[in-house]
Specification:
single chain; 252 residues; 13 strands; globular
Length: 252
């Protein structure tokens, strides 16, 4: 099961009827947070009632307006890692510099849930997943992979944050050699927490390629290929990442 209700929306766009599946988590104070990252909180900065009071009896605007303050991390919930996240020398590749060509791409997804928890996802495992899904990677694509950890984000947050596999250096290098513009996963990181050397992040730093973490509903995409992956980060100037609205999009 997924943590949110799975609903495919049909939207007419540019003369076509397209299916949209939301692949993003909610953002709230209740979501699991990667260990050591800032938690999220919301609070009322000004309530509707306070506005009505401050406007006074001379105003006919009786509803007021409300605004909330937010504190969070640039890597909370479903989010994109900018290249700057991987390498302090690449501040010119912060999240606001990610191009539309990277944010909206042809895509495919594979099931890697057969890989044991807290181990490396090897190149052999990746190729096995690709073969099972009958996916051939091409330059300019995004690849999404499902580890099976997703449901624990709701039922057991500590397990979700500590028990997933992650790509090793060889697998990541081979994937980026295929010309991928983005790799996404349902796990909290593309690196397993059992390897503190972060081999996947290191390769992404060297190759200057973004990736996406904490996706949901990957297995609800009704085809393994021939769809688009689109994500929309906030244009936070100079930051190392951003929460995203992420969608799988396809035409019947």
């Amino acid at each position: 099961m997924s943590e949110n209700n799975v609903k495919i929306d049909v939207v007419e766009f540019m003369g076509k009827k397209l299916n949209f599946l939301d692949l993003g988590k909610d953002i709230s104070p209740d979501i699991p947070v990667y260990p050591g990252h800032m938690k999220t909180d919301f609070w009322w900065h000004k309530t509707h009632e306070e506005t009505v009071f401050s406007l006074g009896d001379k105003s006919n605007y009786k509803l007021g307006f409300g605004v909330k303050g937010i504190i969070t991390c640039d890597h909370t919930s479903t989010h994109v890692d900018a290249v700057y996240h991987f390498d302090p020398n690449k501040s010119h590749l912060s999240v606001d510099k990610i191009t539309l060509q990277e944010l909206i791409t042809p895509a495919a997804w594979i099931d890697l849930s057969f890989v044991p928890n807290r181990t490396h996802i090897t190149l052999d495992a990746v190729k096995k997943g690709l073969d099972a899904a009958e996916v051939t990677l091409k330059p300019g694509m995004s690849l999404l992979y499902w580890t099976g950890i997703e449901p624990y984000g709701v039922t057991d947050p500590f397990y979700y944050l500590s028990q997933y596999p992650g790509l090793d250096e060889e697998a990541t290098t081979w994937l980026l050699d295929q010309g991928l513009l983005n790799i996404g996963t349902d796990a909290a990181s593309l690196d397993t927490p059992a390897d503190l050397d972060y081999p996947n992040h290191s390769v992404h730093a060297e190759r200057e390629v973004i990736h996406t973490e904490s996706l949901v509903n990957i297995t609800k995409i009704p085809r393994h290929k021939d769809f688009y992956y689109a994500m929309f980060p906030l244009k936070w100037v100079g930051l190392t990442g951003s929460p995203v609205r992420a969608f799988a999009i396809w035409e019947d």
